[in-house]
Amino acid sequence: MDRNVLEGRGPKIAIECGDQQVSYQQLPQKTNQVGNALRDLDVRPEERVVVLLEDIPEFIYCFFGTIKIGAVAVPINTFLNARDYEYLLNDARARVVFVSGAILPQLRLIPRSRLRYLQKIAVVGQAYAGCLGFSELVANSSPELDAAPTSKDDVAFWLYSSGSTGFPKGCVHLHHDMVVCSELYAKGILRMNEQDRYYSVARLFFAYGLGNAGYFPLAAGATSILSPDRPTPEGIYANIERYRPTLFFSVPTNYATLLAHRRADRAEFDLSSVRHAISAGEALSAGVFERFKQRFGVEILDAFRLDRNSTNGPIQPPRSCETRVERPGNTRLRSQDRR
Fold first, then answer.
1. How far apart are CA 35 and CA 148, in angstroms?
2. Assuming Cys at both sites, which of 37, 143, 161, 234 could form a disulfide with 29, CB separation 3.0 to 4.6 Å?
């Protein structure tokens, strides 16, 4: 974020969310305010801070504000229930959680006596007695903040697994992971640049969405388009037509759902701004690839290794990266090490 200001992109829009726009000049200031507020709450390096927020600008402020003071950001799924949140908050041993007002009722169902470590709840939106209002929390915090003296191998954030093989497990990600993934995958393979506009159906609490709509745009000096609404075909098409993204990220199941949806008047949706559609999370069928290309003139690039464990793209820097079509109708992004 700081680099984008130093390189002259201060007035450029970093985030669009509804009618809200956040410039690259404003973004580090708001992030620094969160970091200073956390220090005022006595959050120390390496302590976990849970980010239970919808896809809104405050997610970005809280995520990077936490990391900047040397603490560990822990984004968690916004579609879970009270029992899940009780487990995750205790497992992370977080003393502070940032939560959207719409999700707060789930936390209020948990007796505070069963949250062994939690001390402060900061609410983006309507707060209740016993909670901190996010706006009030950061209002008097300084927009200036020096980054903690962390190294590239220090822990930056955790992402929890789905728990399909037992209790969810926190997957640890280091500071340098975001840099490696941005340089090798975002810039090296997708050729992302500051003219791009990113729109991700995958939420920010997923590794896939966190790269797509979080740190990839910032690494490229581009614009991230965020929406707190639960994704529906109508809403996704409306956002594409309104915000005109150049890069669109989703998963195979959602691409199939989009293909099944049409306007009542049968007029076609306008995806002409999209230069690449990207898929991950499961295998993309040849049928969905061909139908999407035929209908919208956009090829879907199917990427490997976009999960909680590897973040995005290859971790070990290869000598060269290339896009390879593995079979008709299914484009796979794969790192090729030619040593």
1. 10
2. 143
Dihedral sign computed on CA atoms, order 43, 45, 47, 49: positive
> Which domain does 269 fall in, by range?
176-336
My answer on whether 138 and 224 are in the same domain is: no
> Can you give the three-state secondary structure of 298-329, one letter per residue?
CCEEEECCCCCCCCCCCCCCCCEEEEEEEECC
Span 229-251, average pLDDT: 97
Query: Residue 338 half-sphere exposure, CB side, CA atoms within 13 Å?
Result: 6
The C-alpha R_g of the chain, in whole angstroms, comes to 20
Q: Which pLDDT does position 329 carry in this prediction?
A: 44
Strand 72-75 and strand 300-303: the pairing is: unpaired
**116 and 195 part of one domain:** no
Pair 19, 118 in one domain = yes
CA-nearest of 198, 244, 205 to 221 is: 198
Tell me the per-residue pLDDT of 31-56, one tens digit each, with 9 for 90 and over: 999 999 999 999 999 999 999 999 99
Mean pLDDT of all residues in 288-316 = 73
Predicted confidence at residue 156, as pLDDT, reads: 97
Angle between helices 233-243 and 252-260 (to 10 degrees): 90
What is residue 90's three-state secondary structure? helix
CATH of the domain at 309: 3.40.50.12780
**Rounded to 5 degrees, what angle do the CA atoms 43, 61, 161 make?**
75
Provide the CB-side half-sphere exposure for 297 (13 A, CA).
8
Cα 70 from Cα 289, distance rounded (Å): 42
Q: Tell me the pLDDT band of 305, cut-offs 50, 70 and 90.
A: low
Distance between CA 231 and CA 204 in Å, rounded?
13
Q: Do 223 and 90 have their domain in common?
A: no
Does residue 326 belong to any structural domain of this protein?
A: yes
User: pLDDT by residue (tens digit) across 122-133?
Assistant: 999 987 888 999
Give the strand pairing for 197-200 and 247-250.
Answer: parallel
Q: Within this chain, do residues 79 and 40 fall inside the same structural domain, yes or no?
A: yes
